[in-house]
Amino acid sequence: MEHRPSTSRNKAMRYAVPVAVAAVAAAGVGLVPALADSGDPDLPDITAQELITKIAESDVEQLSGTVELSSDLGIPGLDAASDGGGLFGGHSGGPEEKGEDGGGDPAQGGTDSPADPAGRLTGLLAGDHTLRVALDGPERQRVSVVEDAAEYSLIRNEGELWAYDSASDTAFHAELPEHPEGGEEHGRGGPGSLTPQEAAERALAAVDDSTSVTVDGTTSVAGRDAYVLAIAPKDAPDSTVDAVRIAVDAENGTPLRVTLDARGEGDPVVEAGYTKVDFGKPSAELFDFTPPKGTDVTEADELAEKHGRGMNGLPEGLDGLPGLPGADGADGLGESAEVIGEGWDAVVKIEGPEGLAGGELNSREAQPLLDAFSERVSGEFGEGRVFSTTLVNALITEDGSVYVGAVTKDGLLKAAGTD
Amino acid sequence: MSPADGAASAVRAEAAASGPGTAVRRPSPLWTLSLFRSELTVTLRRWRTLALLGILAVLPVLIGIAVKIETGGGDGGGGGDGGEGPAFINQITNNGLFLVFTALAATLPFFLPMTVGVVAGDAVAGEASAGTLRYLLVAPAGRTRLLLAKFAALLVFCLLATLVVALSAVLVGAALFPLGDITLLSGVTVPLSEGLLRALAIAVAVAVSLVGLAALGLFVSTLTGSGIAAMSATVGLLITVQIVGAIPQLDVVHPYLFPYHWMSFADLLRAPVPWGDILANAGLQGVYAAVFGSAAWARFTTRDITS
Questions:
Q1: Collapsing DSSP states into helix, strand and coil, what is residue A138?
Q2: B150 vs chain A: nearest CA distance in angstroms?
Q3: pLDDT at A60 over 60
Q4: Residue B80 and residue A114: Cβ atoms within 8 Å?
Q5: Compositional bias (Basic and acidic residues) at which positions (chain A) (predicted)?
Q6: Per-residue model confidence (pLDDT) at position A338
């Protein structure tokens, strides 16, 4: 019967079984996402003002979820650092990026502990990352950067901030001041600053007359219905920003996804959004951290003495993480910065150290390297070099001034010329 | 039933020429079960299988001693070079249980699947080249059931090979390093008992990772009459797939390769455990098992067995 050598028809039928199984599997791969994507949800109409109010009034304090973070800023150094360098070092790094790595690793440079947040979070600026977030009120927050067979966690529990890097088995500890910045809920620079909520707040803070805010339909994020709030530059022909879009949970007003589109770019330059979100209370054990026996613990105070950094040891630049331009732009730059123009076309001018351009910029050895990722320009400001990325352009002139802005190259040169 | 059982037993005695006594065979009403048992004993009695399992048991010892020597002078002060070497290797000095995860992470890309490839490739083709396959088919068990018994024995071998690595690593880890509460990758501390439970779950997850290759090997094994050819073809396929998986330009096909989710077992060390990748791995292995299992069945039940 079944074990007898069969006729050729029987044989063909039996071989059809694996083919059919493979076909069903292939169809499943193709169909399941198509079926799951049931289109944008129908939600009652809402005005932009109502939506902003909804975000402001959102009282969600407990949340856990997974955030996918992706950015394509077009900055060569950062890309190389995150792919080939310390952050995702070893087994997972793509070999094709290795060549650009030579100039040192900004993600690790100048810090002694692999668990030090200052170095690690810079790496998030480029590439794709998965974060796991848990929030339980303003005092207890955690964010983990998921890596291959490792995880980097930033845990805030009341007055304590711990960072644990499982790959190197090292930890970082800092005492936070009791109530930073008076009444502000989310301590800036704490783990919460990596969530879409914080990014949305920063985007909204930048809203003024030069900005148009509209409701741009609905969408579905992490299985939840959401409105899309679009924030776009108005009368800013030179801005590289097309729009910032915030998907806001229709039920409780939590920003679920923030995307930043650049003009002329198909894919979002920066995207941070939940792929999974749960508004229940996260398990309390998530906020307890005791360094394992034998783990190296770096204290923030010691590090601060060594490097002269701020008490909480967090990088100054963290606030500007998703690279949102506008109001926050000039905050961290200190006194030597000057803002030219306003709104989305604004350009920041920084007086660089004397002789920067004359010395290093034109030295013979640096020439090929500079030519590789910058462009020689001249104008009313004299000679200079423009460094271009998808979103931000920077001009360094001969006299050492640096002009930086989220504007096109032409806009930047124009601004530098009128200065 | 029982005369047929005896026939299979006789064939087995011939196949397992190395062992002095044949398997003690109690008559069983369940044909398939006894067939499965005889398959398993035959597989596990081969010198080749025992040697492979022996090497798997020695690997954790090597890793453990290497880590011990390396950190012995520095008083166990956890290395600062994150990302070097196999996963979890920096945590071993503080907690011996991490040797289990390191050993599995070190053997999973190549050595574990290689042993599975050898045993799977040998399953049908080995019998054919030894000339015992036709005797097996004399028994009225049917080819489908014989193949099922072989596949089941193969799955048990996957689990056994993984457990050998894990068990050896636990013993070496306990002997050379301190054991205690274990800090998960996410920074959450759990008691040792839960750590051991998670280690067991990881061993099962790793064994599941090998199912796809086992089915593939079984299919290759039905294609040829030479055991060596089937083994080397299976191991060759494994190497090819691993190389393709390492080429970033081919990342379009990566999600469909059986090793794609292999490292997902590490997710069991996070808190809370993200099941997505682990389930995706199980699903992918299931698809491989279904496709190549049925292909092996189609081939094996329709081909002329002459040797």
A1: coil
A2: 16
A3: yes
A4: yes
A5: 176-188
A6: 80
